[in-house]
Amino acid sequence: GAVVSQHPSRVICKSGTSVKIECRSLDFQATTMFWYRQFPKKSLMLMATSNEGSKATYEQGVEKDKFLINHASLTLSTLTVTSAHPEDSSFYICSAEDRGNIGGYTFGSGTRLTVV
Amino acid sequence: GEDVEQSLFLSVREGDSSVINCTYTDSSSTYLYWYKQEPGAGLQLLTYIFSNMDMKQDQRLTVLLNKKDKHLSLRIADTQTGDSAIYFCAESSNDYKLSFGAGTTVTVRA
Lengths: 116, 110
Fold this sequence. Notes:
The complex is a heterodimer of chains A (about 120) and B (about 110).
Chain A: E1 4-7, E2 10-13, E3 19-25, E4 32-38, E5 44-51, E6 57-58, E7 67-73, E8 76-81, E9 90-97, E10 105-107, E11 111-115
Parallel strand pairs in A: 2-11
Antiparallel strand pairs in A: 1-3, 3-8, 4-5, 4-9, 5-6, 7-8, 9-10, 9-11
Chain B: E1 4-6, E2 9-13, E3 18-24, E4 31-37, E5 43-50, E6 55-58, E7 61-66, E8 71-76, E9 85-92, E10 98-100, E11 104-109
Parallel strand pairs in B: 2-11
Antiparallel strand pairs in B: 1-3, 3-8, 4-5, 4-9, 6-7, 7-8, 9-10, 9-11
C-alpha cells in the first residue's frame, strides 16, 4: 500500500533556530500534501495544503513566514519552522493524497518537535 | 465550516464490542473515515465509507452511516488490548481537505 515517510521523527532545537521536516511519498506521486499540527490530547489542526510546483495554501491563523512549505517534486514536501520558539513545540504530521487509491490519504509517522 | 464531534473516552472489556460515535455537520461530505493513532505515532487509516453507503464491514470493523442524521459509528468486534488507541473520525468534501474530530481514546481492560 501507499507509504509516506516523515523525517525526523523527533527533533530538539534551540529557540531561534530553524527546523526542516521532510515528508516523502515512497511509492506514489503526490501532487497534494497536507501538513497538520497536533496538540497534546487534541485533534489534528490543518496548517496548510502543499501543492507541487506552486505556493502552499495556508489555513487561517497560520503564519506563512513562520511555517515555510516547499513542494518541489511529486514525492517530497518540506515544512520549515523558522525562528522556532517554545510555543512551536508540537507534533507535526504530514499526509499525502494518493488519487490512485479511493479514500487514499496516507499519513506520515509524525515529528515531535521540542524547542528549548 | 466543517465540524466533527465525537466522544472523548471509551473503556471496554477485552472481548466485548466497542462502539465509537461521531457526528458531523457538512452535508456535502463525500467520504468519511476512521483513523487509529497509537502513542507517538501517525495516523493509520482503518476504514472509510462513501457517503452514499450506509454500512461497510471489514473483518472486525463495521461502519454505520446515517446520512440523514449525519451520524457515523465504528464498531470493533471482539476488542483486543492492541485496539487501545485514539480513534479519529474525519470527513472530506469536494476540496479534499480532511476535517477531524477530537479523537476518542479507547482503553481496553482485561
